[in-house]
Amino acid sequence: MVPRYSRPAMSAIWEAENRYRIWFEIEAHATDALAELGVVPRSAAKALWDWWATNPAIDVAAIDAIEAVTKHDVIAFLTWVAEHVGEEARFMHQGMTSSDVLDTCLAVQLSQASDLLLADLDALLEAIKRRAYEHKLTPTIGRSHGIHAEPVTFGLKLAEAYAEFARCKTRLQAARLDIATCAISGAVGTFANIDPRVEAHVAAKLGLAIEPVSTQVIPRDRHAMFFATLGVIASSIERLAVEVRHLQRTEVLEAEEYFSPGQKGSSAMPHKRNPVLTENLTGLARMVRSAVVPAMENVALWHERDISHSSVERFIGPDATITLDFALGRLTGVIDKLLVYPERMMKNLDRMGGLVHSQRVLLALTQAGVSREDSYKYVQRNAMKVWESDGALSLMELLKADTDVAAALSAQEIEDKFNLDYHFAQVDTIFARVFGE
Amino acid sequence: MVPRYSRPAMSAIWEAENRYRIWFEIEAHATDALAELGVVPRSAAKALWDWWATNPAIDVAAIDAIEAVTKHDVIAFLTWVAEHVGEEARFMHQGMTSSDVLDTCLAVQLSQASDLLLADLDALLEAIKRRAYEHKLTPTIGRSHGIHAEPVTFGLKLAEAYAEFARCKTRLQAARLDIATCAISGAVGTFANIDPRVEAHVAAKLGLAIEPVSTQVIPRDRHAMFFATLGVIASSIERLAVEVRHLQRTEVLEAEEYFSPGQKGSSAMPHKRNPVLTENLTGLARMVRSAVVPAMENVALWHERDISHSSVERFIGPDATITLDFALGRLTGVIDKLLVYPERMMKNLDRMGGLVHSQRVLLALTQAGVSREDSYKYVQRNAMKVWESDGALSLMELLKADTDVAAALSAQEIEDKFNLDYHFAQVDTIFARVFGE
Amino acid sequence: MVPRYSRPAMSAIWEAENRYRIWFEIEAHATDALAELGVVPRSAAKALWDWWATNPAIDVAAIDAIEAVTKHDVIAFLTWVAEHVGEEARFMHQGMTSSDVLDTCLAVQLSQASDLLLADLDALLEAIKRRAYEHKLTPTIGRSHGIHAEPVTFGLKLAEAYAEFARCKTRLQAARLDIATCAISGAVGTFANIDPRVEAHVAAKLGLAIEPVSTQVIPRDRHAMFFATLGVIASSIERLAVEVRHLQRTEVLEAEEYFSPGQKGSSAMPHKRNPVLTENLTGLARMVRSAVVPAMENVALWHERDISHSSVERFIGPDATITLDFALGRLTGVIDKLLVYPERMMKNLDRMGGLVHSQRVLLALTQAGVSREDSYKYVQRNAMKVWESDGALSLMELLKADTDVAAALSAQEIEDKFNLDYHFAQVDTIFARVFGE
Amino acid sequence: MVPRYSRPAMSAIWEAENRYRIWFEIEAHATDALAELGVVPRSAAKALWDWWATNPAIDVAAIDAIEAVTKHDVIAFLTWVAEHVGEEARFMHQGMTSSDVLDTCLAVQLSQASDLLLADLDALLEAIKRRAYEHKLTPTIGRSHGIHAEPVTFGLKLAEAYAEFARCKTRLQAARLDIATCAISGAVGTFANIDPRVEAHVAAKLGLAIEPVSTQVIPRDRHAMFFATLGVIASSIERLAVEVRHLQRTEVLEAEEYFSPGQKGSSAMPHKRNPVLTENLTGLARMVRSAVVPAMENVALWHERDISHSSVERFIGPDATITLDFALGRLTGVIDKLLVYPERMMKNLDRMGGLVHSQRVLLALTQAGVSREDSYKYVQRNAMKVWESDGALSLMELLKADTDVAAALSAQEIEDKFNLDYHFAQVDTIFARVFGE
């Protein structure tokens, strides 16, 4: 976790205090269920909740000090609770194993993290949608291979991003379901020393599903799927970030990240306005993705479990969620405040002398009975002249003057093909598909 | 693609012939729709289908020869079709761009591949289920950290695998939906030169959904999610493979891969029966996973598309699906014919002199009023003696002879704790959860 | 391996025939050494070499057929050789284990592959160097963050690439040393049944170092380092490829991949010249990199070996070397024939109205006694005007008219700062560092 | 960075204070060189060093506060220094760009980190060597595929690890050279505003090589190679960790991590001694490896630089080095204190009834004139009986009783083959190769 790429709400999920609070709730709810089943006295559960009702501070340092001796985190925590709750605390954790607490806690933390990320996606979708409608019909050149192709609108670019992040949201909802399970099944998952109803009770209280079959741990294919999903979302962030970086290039300059008055772009070159936020997002995407492979390597634990996954999760649990949360927030800000330059978009669109309309002419020739191969040849030879003139020549004029073309199409027919609105006839259709409105 | 890790049905999906067949169907269905819309003559569509009805051989070499000149695969294919269909073929591909064909074809191929993989998962699940019920109550030691923990049954191990692969199936179904879309939207996705109804028609005919908004290409977050899902499935394969490898270790030998009579395990050591299939699966899992990162790196194409994803997909499209198909088939065979040795399982279970029952004694002491810390101490000091004797001493006898323990529990109460059935009381519950029966 | 991304010389290394030829040489050289040591009759070695001198065809299909029965590749090969050599062949492979042959063969193949890759790098370096000197003083704008910064020369860009690939060559030479070892040490590496002098003899004959200590296999950290090095080289390829892609963008167009007359860029847009080779290289780089993680996962084999690495190497051995060989060849062609447009470079350089010289003015102001902060402020306020004018205004004229600036610098002093040669004074120094001339 | 997987010396390298100290030294040494060249007054350099000689505390919070306004870290630092040094400070950073400072600083930090890691490797090698000689002739079974193969010694296992980590050290030394370069070349690497002698001076003072050609930044292929090398080292750590984990399995128990008296292995099963350190190392290896791909993705920066690498390096710079340092230290401790059980090794070695000697018998039969195929058959049929008896039958006795075998070998000849020393005849040779003594 790098502080400058962190936001408080997500970071708090991964702080020791939150973890211990969740541990307590798991233990106390389990004690309730055990009491209900007659395994432990009701007074034990009551003692726990009574103490909790005093809203006790979690003394992380004290728990750490105990762990330094016992070298076991859950025992350290239970010892610390017992110091405060007293004698009745000995009924806690009956028939449970450490992993029951640790894994169910991780499920709660990842669920909390998912909820923040889902809210982040909602905010991002909202920002994209607003800007998409704002620029629904702002013409701009579409590019394949970095080369001018045919006109699109800037709103269409954003509609694409919207659809992509909407898919990401659906995937994250599925991933959240995958990791939101509770396992309280004992040392090797047999419930030998604990009734499955304890698990069911705790699960219900914490908003989790029960884990149908656990070993000592919740199976790690769930977490692998979760982190893989974060990696896909990060890749979609990178895509939109790269788009902005391209648009802000000096020669393109169709859009820019918002530039606050006090900001200095370079210690040496005061005129520079650099797309540093989206470049940063590109790097952050690499980091979120880097969690995917270790999460997958965590799946093949030995037999009923080994603990190799634990250190990995101490890194990627916080890092991937905190970084993705930060990145989604940063991207939302970039889109929300993006400076968009429609005039420059139009200027770029026009600079190739009408080459972007070549496809329409090609079709018109074919429809006028010229063979596909000839049509292609007629258009290409004129297009090449325009290309080599760096936009100084006009494709429309050249085509009118081409005798082969003129034999098939009138000057008016040729002119009709050089018209932007033609390209945007289906924008409403696409927006309706994407935004469902 | 490595031939020895390939099966014919999956390989056929990726052969040139299948690709060209799908291309034809896309073009011909599109021509139908264009004819219906009055854009091209009905005779053009008819000419295509009439030729197709003759079940023409796909001359891959001829198409390759044309591509060697044009350096463009779709143009080469269209040229070849035109050579056979004649004049009417010029109406094909009206308003479409190559990617409309290529990406929709990839969607069909990945859907076909998904269907095979889903069938593979069904076969695997069936094999696991059968063996799980067969060994539902076969006792074996559960191990955490590779160390004996408490008893489980071999059926429970398989139930765990079943639940995991059932989750994998759900994930693959979702991933299949993600990639099964059709885009016929023209050069930059605006439908400038083609009516969206063409896309809808082709999608319906091919069993795909329409792509709500495409650029020139279908967005690659879909494919990233698909390959990430394959990576998760591969990791689950690795997990079960590693379990078998552990069980087959000389010192454990609780199960073995089936060993055919003619097979030689080693050129030097004729007694060896090596778990080579599951070791192989471990390696294949690494390969399937290796497709995940490139697939994610493919997402951030430049603007409306660049072609960097294409070479990646030429590798991972076939490799990841063919390898995973092979691996699932191999794993199914391993499970189906796995030699299971219940006697050896019991022998291993017993070898630690009853240490696996220590947790029950610990609980009994606590419930008899001994503090948690003292209970732990009493059990641990006796357990250590057994451990150091390498199983020669009996924990039950030592506990009976321990005055502190004897003060809290009678000999009979101690003996009651050394009982396997106690551990398996919830096996039915777990099976009901997993198999839903 | 994807045929279209393969070249014959590298592919041949990975064909069955080459593998069997290397196997034979290992076995025959080993038999020589065994004969020298008196372990086997000299006639046995002679029989092998006599047969080999007949230049026998390697009947891959026959060997495969035997393997289908024995399920063991080395035994199948030995059996096939024995069928041809006769009785004496039984002395082959004395005291050896299959891995002695397999791993030493892989070392030979990877060494052969390294030699081709080193030659590829030499060719690439030669092409880069030639173009670097050609454009040593061709001015072009340097860009950070995609934004114009200060002038560089196109030759400097290529000098950077040269230095990078020269480092790659050094790394590959080290990696080649890492994998070029011979192990003939028997079933668990103890030389129990074979004298270490056999290993030394075979190593010397094949141009390999001896493996100081092997288990059954050559340790896989060597191969991990090898594939990691290929991954770094691939990343450097990607960097230069991305540079070309950027330079070919419509708005930049400072360089272009060579465009052959017959080539069609797009089925729909005849004017398009797409940087498809470098886009392809970007994708291929992803694939070569994808071998790195599995190669690292291969290191932790169990005990004296398991065979999980084998399937991985059947993929990545050929795939990573063949793809990298192809990519280096393609990149060499791109650089060799790259169309470079110095006029366009100059036009782009000038388009920002002299903003690229702002740093020099800033320094001059500081040296004239203006505080750093004020200098920055004076330059920035004028630079911003130029920026907002899209290059219509001239920074030089604005600065002359700025009273604060004029108070510190004369008009002539300001003009002196707007001079390209100033920036290129150290080009010779840098070229001398890079090319050592 | 996860505190529990960190050690102070390595962490300190990555703390803000160390970074600012390095920045100061770069700036002050550069000012010295600028003064020497007459570009700035000597008094400026003197003022910097005079202040530095007062050993001023680095006020990280104050610098952060300035950065919050300027949004530029180097400017913030320079401003803070100027507040303390006064007027003369304005001569600092003349002609330099931020990256000159940042990248050279990173080179110093990575060099410092490398030095710690090299010392870690030395300590690890020393521990391995000591234990290797201690157990040079301790017999233990060699295993391939997890199955008993032939005898080795425990010292040989450690010799293998020694050779592997010695290779890792060589690789890290090469990687250190790769990243230890100094670039002070200005905004786009042309030295337009700064003499190359400044770079040379700073490089010499900091123990770095000059960067032959930089853009704005030091090229990232260097860092990719560095992190790839860390990934290989991590993989070697994983290998040795996995070996210990296997040896500590209940059924094997040939070695154990040292178990401190106060340590509790499990909250539920007091008898458990889990290999938690080596399991942890397995996970940490995954994390170090996870830095490799992002480091490679960092190589292809756009043009003369973009800043996408920066966020990645803020994570992986500290994380990979701190984690690897911790892991090497932990592994050294594990090896140093490893509990080794030679009796258990011998017991395991014997448990297969002499099967491990089958290869020797096979050879003896061949040498006695039996065909390879028959020899194999005779040994295998007896070996299978032993195998199926789970070690109850003795291979030696069965072979003596086999008429085909007895026809070729006398009882004494058979007995001679069942002898451990035979296997260890080359241990001295191997140790001499590995330890060079």
TrEMBL record, chains A, B, C, D:
It catalyses: (2S)-2-[5-amino-1-(5-phospho-beta-D-ribosyl)imidazole-4-carboxamido]succinate = 5-amino-1-(5-phospho-beta-D-ribosyl)imidazole-4-carboxamide + fumarate; N(6)-(1,2-dicarboxyethyl)-AMP = fumarate + AMP. Pathway: Purine metabolism; AMP biosynthesis via de novo pathway; AMP from IMP: step 2/2; Purine metabolism; IMP biosynthesis via de novo pathway; 5-amino-1-(5-phospho-D-ribosyl)imidazole-4-carboxamide from 5-amino-1-(5-phospho-D-ribosyl)imidazole-4-carboxylate: step 2/2. Pfam families: ADSL_C, Lyase_1. Its EC number is 4.3.2.2. Residues 353-435 form the Adenylosuccinate lyase C-terminal domain. SMART domains: ADSL_C. GO terms for biological process: 'de novo' AMP biosynthetic process; 'de novo' IMP biosynthetic process. One of its GO terms (molecular function) is (S)-2-(5-amino-1-(5-phospho-D-ribosyl)imidazole-4-carboxamido) succinate lyase (fumarate-forming) activity. Keywords: Lyase, Purine biosynthesis. It comes from the Bacteria. GO terms for cellular component: cytosol. Belongs to the lyase 1 family. Adenylosuccinate lyase subfamily. This is Adenylosuccinate lyase. The lineage of its organism: Bacteria, Pseudomonadati, Pseudomonadota, Alphaproteobacteria, Sphingomonadales.
